[in-house]
Amino acid sequence: MDRDLTNLQVSVDELKSLALNSLSSANKPSDIEALSVTLVGKKGKLTEMMKDLKNLAPEARKEAGALLNHAKSNIEALLDTKLQELKSKETLLKLEKDWIDVTLPVQASIPNFGIGSIHPLTQVQKELERIFSSLGFELVDGPEVESEYYNFDALNIPAEHPAREMQDTIWLENNSLLRTQTSAIQVRALENKKPPIRIFAPGRCFRYERIDATHEHTFYQMEGMMIDKNVNIGHLIYFMKTLLREIFGEEQKIRLRPGYFPFVEPGFELDIWFKDRWLELLPCGLVHPKVLQAGGIDPTQWQGFAFGLGLSRLVMSRYGLDDIRHLQGADLRFLRQF
Amino acid sequence: MKILRSWLADYIDIDDLSDDRLSELLTTRVAEVESVNSELFCLDKILIARISKVSPHPNSDKLCLLTLDLSGETLEVVCGDKTTQVGQFVPYAPVGSYIFKSKNQEEPEKILIEQKPVAGVLSKGLLLSEAELGLGPDNENVLRLTENYLGKKLEHGSELKKYFNCKDLVIEIDNKSLTHRPDLWGHQGFARELSALTGRALKQEILEYEFGSSKPRIKIEIEANSGCRRFSVLCFDSINNAKSPLWIRQRLYRVGSGVKNLLVDLSNYVMRDIGQPNHAYDLSLLNEDCIKIRSGHENESFIALDDKEYKLSTQDIAVADSKRVLALGGIIGGKDTSITDSTTSIAFESANFDPIIIRKSAKRHALRTDASNRFEKSQSAYSVALATTKFAKLICELSPGAKIIDSGFDAFVDKPKKVSIPVNFSYIRQRLGKPLKDDDIEKVLNSLGLKKHQDSWEVPHFRATRDLSNADDLVEEVGRIIGYENIPEQIPLIQPIAVKPKNVFKEQISNNLKGLGFAEVYNYSFINPELSKSLGYPCSDELKLKNPIDSDLSCVRSSLVPSMLAVVNHNLKRFERFALFEFGRAYKAVKKNSARESGAEENQYLCFAFTSTNNEKQEIVNALPAVSKGADFYSALSIVRALLGKIELNVNALVEPLAWMHPYRNASLSADGVIFGQLAEVTPGLIDSSNQRVQIAEIDFKKLVELLEKNEKHTKYSAFSRFPHSFFEISVVMPEKEAFSNLELLLKSCVQKEILKDLQVLSVYRGKPLEEGQKSVSVKLFLGSDHGTLSAEKVTEIQTAVMAAVNESKYSLRT
C-alpha cells in the first residue's frame, strides 16, 4: 500500500517537472493550451493517473486521490500564470507597432468635434456668481468630504439630534462624511475671515438617496452668508428680494414662513408666488449665535443671515427638465442642447 | 401628521376662519401644511332605516331581501350581508344618492346609486358599510347604527348626517417642520397656537390628574439611569370594551389611525389629542403588583404587540415585572398583556422617557412607532398626567359603569428644570427690524403661555423641552406670531468689501474647450473600487463608503479618468466623433490630526477626452512634421498647448504608464519644471467600440492655474530684434524608438540659448536607404542675435559645432 503511494508520488513529481520544463520553453499562448491538453486534459496524463486510482486498495485511494487533486490544481495554476504572462506579452508586442515618439513637437490640428457646450449647472452657477459678486459677496470653497464637526456639530446639530435624521448621510470608512449641505462651509468661512463677511459657496452635496426622476444622491446647492453689525430680518428680506429679482429678471412676490434649521434662529422657508401658488424656494434665517461662536465670532457684536439655494432645482425649472438624472448623465443628446 | 378642523374646534372657536385662512395661518405662522382635504365628508341623502322584514332572495343563497321601514315609507332592497336582523337600524342610500367606493380614503370614488336588479330582483337603493360612508375602515358588513355608536337617540327615516359632523377638513402637516416642536404632536398643541394667533382663550383646559399615594393597585419602581423620567399607572375595571362610538372611530379614521376597540381607540385618541403616548395593559394579565422600569438585559427576549420577537440590550428601556418584559419602554407594548375585545380591567400607563435613548432604541430595533416618534422629539414630562385625565374622562363617559379602582401611582423621578429666558425687548426689536411696542411683545409672549418674572420670561412646560431656551428663540416666536409679512424690508448699511473674481481661468478654459467642440459633463464623485483599481487608481480603504447606495458607487474617486472612460463608452453607443470635459474633484486619503479634519485631500482636476475612428491613414492630416500614426495623440497635445497659451509644454513618455493607458502612447505633461498632468491614448481593450480610439488627459487644475497666474504676472514687454535670422538644416539618423527630446537636448546644448531662436522638426523619415530600425530626423535651427546680424562665419561655426556634436554622440548625420 505504502509502496503504491510512493510510486504515485514519484510519478506526480515527474509530471510536475515535465510541466515546468515545458512551460519554460513555451513562448505563445497556443503552446500552453496544447500543454494543458497533454497534462490535465480529458485524456491527459494526470487524468489517466486518476483513472488508475480504482486499482488501488480502498484505504490508499483517499490519500492518493488527494495527492493527485493537489497536483492537478498546482499544475493548472502554473499553466494559468504562464498563459496570462504570455498573453500580456503578446498584447504588448502587438501594441508596440503603435509606438510613436510622444516627444516629437508635432503641430497637429485639432479635429472638428462639432458644437461644444457648457453644462447647464455651470451656466446657472456662473450667472449666480455674477449676481453675488456684484452684491459684494465673495466666492468661497469648502471640502466635499467633510468632518462630522463642520457638517453637523458646528451647525448646532449635535449627535442624536433629530435633525440629523432629516438628512440621510453618506458616511466614509474614516468616519468622515460627504457633506449633506453647503452650509458646512459656514463655520469654516467664519474661522478664516474677519467680519464683516459676505460670502457665497456653490457646491456639490450628497445624501443617501435612491435615484429616480426627482431624487438624486448628488445635487448642487449655493450657500450665502452675510455677517455684519445689527443685521435683522428686514435686511434678509431686502437681500432675498434683490437676489430673486436678479435671478428671475423681475420683482418677485415672496413670503417668509417658519422653517426649522438648527443653524439659524429664526429660521425660514422662503416661498415665491409662481403660477398662482406659493412655491417653496429657499431656506434662510438669521445665523444662530452658537454657529457664530463656533466660528470664533462674538454674537453680541456681530449678527448675520444665511440662505441656501437649490441649484439643481433652479436648473431644472429654468430649462424645463423633467428628469434630474440627466444632470449627471453625461449623455451628449442632453448636453448638446445647452 | 394629520389633524382635523373639527377636533381643533373642541378646543378653540375657529368658525370664522375659512379653510383656506386656517391653512394659511398654520403654514405662515406655525408649521408647513402639506395638503388639505375637505372633499371626503359630504354624504347627502343617506337615511336611517329600520329593518322590518328579512326574507330569502329567490335566486341566490348569498343574498337576502330586506324590507326597510323609513317611518312612513317601506321599500325593499337586496342585501349581501346575511347577518342583518329585523329591528336593526342601518344606513340606507336611496336611488339618486352617492356613496364612496374606495378603500383608499385619499382617493375616494363617488358612485351614483341607481335602481337596478340584483340577481333578478329590483333593489331600490343600497345598505351601506362604514367604508362606503367614508366613516371608517369596515367594508365587509352593513353598518349597524346603535345609540351607543351614534351617541344620540335613533330615529328611522331621518338623515344620517344630522348625527355627526359631516363637514370637516383634514390638514396634513409636514412632520419635518415639527422636528423641534414636540408640543405640536397632538391637536391640543395646534389649538394653543391658534389661541395665540387669534387672541381667543382655549375653550377647555385639561388639568393634571391628581394621583394619590394611598392605595395603588400597582407600584412603580424606576431604576436609576434607566432613561425613564416619569411613569404613572391608573387602574380601571368594569369596562365594556365594545366598538367605539362613531365620532371616535371617524376622527381616528380621518387622521389615518387604525381603529380596533374602545380601549385601543381611546389610547390612540388621547395620544393624538394631547400628544402624549400612553399604553393600556390588561390588568387581569398582569400577574404581579409591581412594575419595574429598568435597563434591558442583554439578549432579553420580548414579544411585542406586532407579534415580532425583539432581543433587548442594556441600551433599551424595559417595563417589566419580576419574570418578564411587559413593554419596550416608550416604543411598543407587549403581546401577552395586550388589550383584547374581552378585556374588562386595565392598567393605564402614561410615562416620559429620555428622547435620545428612545431614538437610539427605535433605530436599533428598526421600530419607529407613533410613540417613539413623539418621545424622541422630547415630550414634556408634565403632559403625562394630562393624558391620564383625558383618558379617565373618556372611558367613564363612553363605557358606562367603568370606574377607577385605585389611587394610581405616579413616579416622577426626573423633574425637568424650569426654563427662564432673560431678554431685553430692544434685542427682539433689533433682530426683527421692526419697532414693536413693549406691550405688543408682552402680549405675544403671554399668548404663548410665557410668564414674566422681572426681566425674565418663564417658558411653559410644553415649550421647555429643548425648544425655547434663549433670546433668539423668542425673537422667532414674536416674529412668527406677528407675521413675517409685517416686517418691512430694509436696505442694510454695510461696509464695502472688494470682491476678487475667482474661477477666471476655469471660465476661460471652459469657453476655450467649448469653442473646440467639447461638451462639459458632470460625473459622480463615486466609483466602483474594483473598476478604479483595474484602471490603475486603487481606492484607499479609508475613503470607501460605509453605506454605499450602490456597489458601483462604493468609493470616492481618486481620479476623474475612470468615470470619464465610462461616459465615453456610454456615448460611443450613439456617436462616433465627440469630445468631453469635466472639472471635478478627486480625493486622496490623508491622516486625520483632529476630529475636525476630513481625512481627505481634495483636488480639482480638468479631465478631457475625445474619440476618433481607428483608421490611422485617415488621421494624417495637417500635422507638421507629417506623421504616419498617432495623429490624435498629437492633437490632444495641441489641445493642452492651447490651454497653456505661450507657456512651453514639455512632454515625456511615462516611466510607468497606468493600466488604462496605451503602453506606447502616453505622456506626462510638464511646464516650467512642474508636472501638471498626464495624457494617454486609452489602451484598445477598454473601448467598447473596436474601431475607435480615445485620448484622455487629466490635468491638476490647481497646478495649471498656478502656472497661468505666474506667467501672467511675469509677462513683460521686450523689444523685438531688428536683425534677420539665419538658419540651417541637418538630418540626424537615430534609432527608430529613440525620443526626439534626447536629440533636442543635444542640439540645444551646442548653441547658446540667446542665439537659438527656434528649432523645428521638418520631417521624420523611415525606409531605404536607412537600415531597419533607424529613422532620420530633419531639423531646422533658427539662429539670430538681438544685437546685430550674425555673420556667415558665426553661423558656419555653430553649424560645424552642432554636426560635430551629433557625430560624437550615438547618432549620426545623414549625408
Question: Overview of this structure, please?
Answer:
The complex is a heterodimer of chains A (338) and B (815). Chain A has 338 residues and is α+β, with helices and mostly antiparallel strands. Chain A contains 12 helices and 10 strands. Chain A is elongated, with a radius of gyration of 34 Å. Chain A starts with a helix and ends with a helix. The relative contact order of chain A is 0.10. By secondary structure, chain B is an alpha+beta fold. In chain B, the strands form 11 sheets. Chain B has a 7-stranded mixed sheet, sandwiched between helices. In chain B, strands 5-4-3-6-11 form a 5-stranded antiparallel sheet, with no helix packed on it. The longest helix of chain B is centred in the last third of the chain and has 17 residues. The mean pLDDT of chain B is 91. At the A-B interface, helix 4, strand 1, helix 5, strand 2 and strand 3 of A face helix 2, helix 7, helix 10, helix 12 and helix 13 of B. Strand 1 of chain A pairs antiparallel with strand 33 of chain B, so a sheet runs across the interface.
Computed over alpha carbons, the radius of gyration of chain B is 42 Å
What helical percentage do the residues of chain B reach? 25-40%
- Spatial sequence of strands, sheet with the most strands of chain A: 2-5-6-10-9-8-7
Task: State Rg of chain A.
Answer: 34 Å
Largest sheet of chain B: 7 strands, mixed
Number of helices of chain B: 20
Order of helices and strands of chain A: HHHHEHEEHHEHEEHEEEHEHH
| Mass-distribution shape of chain B | elongated
Low-confidence stretches of chain A: none
Number of helices of chain A: 12
Give the low-pLDDT segments of chain B. none
* Most residues in contact: chain pair: A-B, 101 and 135 residues
Number of strands of chain B: 41
- Average predicted confidence as pLDDT of chain B: 91
Mean pLDDT of chain A: 89
Strands side by side in the biggest sheet of chain B: 28-31-32-37-36-35-34
Report strand % of chain B.
25-35%
Strand coverage percent of chain A: 15-25%
Distance between the termini of chain A: 82 Å
